[in-house]
Amino acid sequence: MEQKDKLFKEIFDSNSKKIFHLCYGYSGDTDVANDLLQETFLKVWQNLDKFRNKSLISTWIYRIAVNTCLTYLRSEKRQAKDELTDNIIENRVEEFSEKNEQIALLYKCISKLEENDRLIITMVLDELPYHEIADISGISEGNLRVKIHRIKQKLTELYNQYASV
Amino acid sequence: MQAFDQIQELWQKHEVEVKVSADEVLQQAKKDINGIKLKSALNILGMLISFFAIAGVWLFYEYQSWTTHAGFIIFLLAILSTTIILYRDYRLISKSDFTVHPKEFLSRLKTYQLNRYKLYNQMYWLYTMALSLGFIFTFLEMLPKLSSIQKALAIGLTFLWILFCSTILRKAVIKREKERISLLIEKFERISGQFSA
């Protein structure tokens, strides 16, 4: 048990920041991102002995996080919260507009993307290799490249459109 | 006009701060449960206080009629048996840890929810009937000593109190507790779901 604790702490310390960024990019809300991070690492903790080293542990955790994000807001009880996501982001924009308007705008633009696209672009922005993103999202690398190209274009368009307003 | 590379640079420049540690992640899951455990424990404590207070009143004063003694015995038995049921339910959720045995814990939490539902429905009416019977027996000796207004007040207030507890209060408690436990079950099922499929 002590060894599992130690291993978990190491895994948490080396992956939590990126996973939190993914969750934050997906939800646009710190509290929701914290919930998602917590759920992800609870799953990691419980299933650590099931990890078979077939992929990188970070890929495995990303896969868990992506699944957690998708099921979290889709669950019936969270519907109301899901609808709130836009409002939360709108509010956050105002909240940190003085500090960093550009970053707030970026989160707002990400929130305008489709759920799956939000997660994919977050991983792209974090410079995850394409083959890993393909593995995590369950899309073939060829299709993923096309998809990423399209999402990048859409995000850039959205960003420039909002920036010029 | 910004290009994607600049957007990416912007993203990477934004430092996010993870405010929880590995220990806190595991503790957080326990914290949700501790709220329910605490409520359950307070419930038991409240029942025990009532038990000793009523036992004190029974022993402290001298009663002439056997009906009063019967009334107090009914009160105490009703409170004691409900406290034992509450304690059994408390043990159900306090014995298992979600972070160690998730499946066992989830099944215990579901049993707990079902038990609470039974407690607030069938069991509650038995409890109310026992208390009402207790009041009738104790009133047989006490009421004749009171004036007409006091009699009316004693009967009226007791009746209203039982009515309030059985309707508005009971419904509110059932609703709040059901929502709280259902949310936890949903959360823990979601956490366990990805790997059990």
Task: Describe this entry's structure for a reader.
The complex is a heterodimer of chains A (165) and B (197). Chain A has helices at 2-27, 30-47, 57-74, 79-95, 97-111, 115-125, 130-137, 141-163. Chain A is mainly alpha-helical. Chain A has one domain. In chain A, helix 1 packs across helix 3 (57-74) and helix 4 (79-95) runs antiparallel to helix 5. The longest helix of chain A is centred in the N-terminal third of the chain and has 26 residues, at 2-27. Chain B has 197 residues and is an all-alpha fold. Chain B has one domain (30-189). In chain B, helix 2 packs antiparallel against helix 3 (66-94), helix 3 (66-94) runs antiparallel to helix 4 and helix 4 packs antiparallel against helix 5. Classes of the chains: A mainly alpha (165), B mainly alpha (197). Chains A and B meet through helix 1, helix 2, helix 3, helix 5 and helix 8 of A and helix 1, helix 2 and helix 5 of B.
Task: Give the chain pair forming the largest contact, with residue counts.
Answer: A-B, 42 and 33 residues
Query: How many strands, what sense, and barrel or not for the largest sheet of chain B?
Result: none
| Inertia-based shape of chain B | elongated
Count the DSSP helices of chain A: 8
H/E series of chain A: HHHHHHHH
Shape, principal axes of CA atoms of chain A:
globular
Number of domains of chain A: 1
Number of helices of chain B: 5
- How many whole angstroms does the radius of gyration of chain B measure? 26 Å
Number of domains of chain B: 1
- Estimate the helix proportion of chain A, in percent: over 70%
Low-confidence stretches of chain A: none
Quaternary structure state of the chains depicted: heterodimer
Radius of gyration of chain A: 17 Å
Q: What share of the residues of chain A does DSSP label as strand, in percent? A: under 5%
Largest sheet of chain A: none
- Proportion of residues in β-strands of chain B: under 5%
By DSSP, the count of extended strands of chain B is: 0
For the termini of chain A, the CA-CA separation is 56 Å
Mean pLDDT of chain A: 82
